[in-house]
Amino acid sequence: MNKAISRSVFIVSIFLFPLLCNAQLTLSKVFGDNMVLQRGISIPVWGTANPGSVISGQLGTVGATAKAGKDGMWTLHFPKFIAGGPYTLKINEQGKPNTAIELKGVLIGDVWLASGQSNMEWQVQQAADARKEIENANFPQIRFFVVEHDKKLKPQSAILAGKWKVCDTANVKDFSAVAYYFARKLHGDQHVPVGIIQSTWGGTPVEAWTSRDKLLTSPITRARTLSNDTLSFDREDFVTDSLNWIRIWHLVYNPQNNADKIFPAPEYNDAGWAPVEMPGVLKDFGIGYYEGMVWLRKKITLPESFAGKDLTVNLGHPEMNYSLYVNGQEICKNIWNSSPSHSYTIPARLLQRGENTIAVRVAMLWGGGGLNQPADDLYITDGASTISLAGKWLYKKDLEPAFPKILNYQYYPTVLFNAMINPVIPYGIKGFIWYQGEANAQAAYNYRKLFPMLITDWRQRWQQGDCPFLFVQLANFMKTKPLPTESEWAELREAQTLTLSLPNTGMACIIDIGEANDIHPKNKQEVGRRLALIANKQVYKQNVIASGPLFKEFKKEGNRIRINFTNTGAGLSTKDGKELTGFAIAGKDKQFYWAKAIIEGDHVIVSCDKVAEPEAVRYAWADNPVCNLVNSEKLPAIPFRTDVWKGITEK
């Protein structure tokens, strides 16, 4: 090192030394007023301070000390507590009384980390019975911490933002619905405070939530993970990706260039617009994959009997973000399904005798957009007579400014682990709940490896042994197929079931409560309840039946196959009391046919006249299967197949 450089380093060190010696005492952002700390374990609390300084902490009347390392990091370890509180947590740097940090309203109970993509992120205000649920959400011993969205190329020591909130009518609307209903049942059953750390991001694959070190161990993810090295945090597109989402939502919620005054107006000339059949998804009608605002228009003629009356319009199941106009006047603005239904009142004063104009401004995102099925739910009525709104509509895109380009870096390997998981390790927890998989369906076979990798990764990093990991299997979704067929979603569900081979894991099957036309089924209450059932059995050791029938083994008996199940409870039956459905059978030609299935105790006997020498049986093997096998607790049988024939996602 030459003299000039040495002198520069010396000068810089002179200026930096006072700053290093006066580093402010801080707590990790995951700690705060009203938090819940985990009972029954040594409780870690960490932060930063002057290197070498001694940190004192007091939780209630119990004390702990730690010394900050050379990097300024320190961690206190409080002894085990039983459930209770509220307590006050006090932290200070010895010899510096003015540095004291004080957190109030701290409870000791059970803390669960809730993570995954949009079905875990789906808020209480978006789910079924939202208004009623919000009005009755008074649970002061349930607390939520929602980690703010963030993505980083390197593991972070601090989250971007978040705050512990008490579960009440003011706060609950923004919480994960699945996690809230899970927490509510556990709180009622176990009578202890429950804390939820919610770290979720819609549309994201499992790779985004897994550490770089773990992803590099697999040939499935190694090359893609290494490709992240071509990125840098200060790249303009990485930084502006989040800003562009802000711009997109501004465009979604705010019509541009007086669009809301021009295009819904009855006198507007829509002669150049393209026809489209509704209900339907716009991308299926020639528009292709498009992201932006699209306008739909339809003229209807009202009968004389409707004159002078307030009418009701029902839009069936439209895309999540839309606005409805009648004769140029806005009737509603729906943001992320904020409305409990899609039925609206049209005041009589807005209607005209004879012809009227209905317009819908809809956001096309992630390939969606349109007025979805069923057709019977698309109508206008006076209560006595009904006019269908199904059929020909007109649509046009590019009437408003285009959305800025989004590169969706949140989908990249490890970026969410770095920013939204790593910073909350090693917060003391009871276990994990997880709802994800939709984003990995096209490569479902790889999920057999990737999902267990994530579970193992998180457990190793938390260092709490085989911490309970409970997850939700994908619901039924998309159109029901008339014949047995292959299915990416069925293969993803199979990968999830195979993950149960890991110790201390549990799966909530919801193959019976999905919705054909919505990837976000609204009945989150039952999802949370089923997760809590598993927790009650596996974690809290209650003697309950927590899962539906699970395939155990099969035996060929001439022209039929006998299937044996576990988790049958007091016996097998059908959910609706009707004939057993959902079974398909095949011979050596691998051609599946719908089968006749009969319940015999804990067994199901499967056969088909078209298959003389059966080789394999599948149950609920479809995107949206028609299936009804349940146990005595009315919990659905888990989809399965007896064959190991190559699937459509195995490459």
From TrEMBL:
Residue ranges of every copy of the Sialate O-acetylesterase domain listed in the record: 110-228, 428-532
Q: Name one Pfam family in it.
A: SASA
Question: Sorted alphabetically, which keywords does the UniProt record give?
Answer: Hydrolase
- Output the Gene Ontology terms for molecular function: hydrolase activity, hydrolyzing O-glycosyl compounds; sialate O-acetylesterase activity
GO BP annotations of the record are:
carbohydrate metabolic process
Which InterPro entries does the UniProt record give? Galactose-bd-like_sf (IPR008979), SASA (IPR005181), SGNH_hydro_sf (IPR036514), SIAE (IPR039329)
- Gene3D superfamilies registered for this protein in UniProt: SGNH hydrolase
Q: Which protein, by its recorded name, is this?
A: Sialate O-acetylesterase domain-containing protein
- The source organism is Niastella vici
